[in-house]
Amino acid sequence: MRIAIGSDHAGYQLKEEIKEFLKREGFGVEDCGVYDTQPVDYPDIAFRVAERVGRGEFERAILVCGTGMGMCMAADKVKGIRCAVCWDETSARFARTHNDANILALGARLIGAELAKNIVKVFLSTPFSGEERHQRRIKKIEEYERKIKR
Ligand code: RB5
User: Fold this and answer.
1) pTM over 0.90
2) 32 is catalytic
């Protein structure tokens, strides 16, 4: 599975740790920045990563900022993206089984590196349940997206 990863300055250190963890686990990872702790605006990174996932260049992505929330809000504006902020393994499991989330957002100021890596592990290893009710709900999001995005 090819994975993109990105962060703002607040998420930089955790992004680096997750990137190394993913490499050790055998994933192909592309680091879409940032590459240092100079302050940047999280939407710039979120759009850069989410658009590539939306185009099908990556199956999944991970975005890290201070809380995960800004990255998530921005990424979810991009067509085809279902980004979820997760704070624990359970939220990551539901984001996959119920919502078929394709981007995980993490808050480096809210969770530690070990928990973050466990969340990533669950996010990448849990399949979408495929149950009809969940497919139907996701389809409604996609239909809405088609209606408003020209
Ligand atoms: C940056 O200070 C911070 O606002 C950002 O990383 C993020 O937490 C926004 O949601």
Assistant:
1) yes
2) no
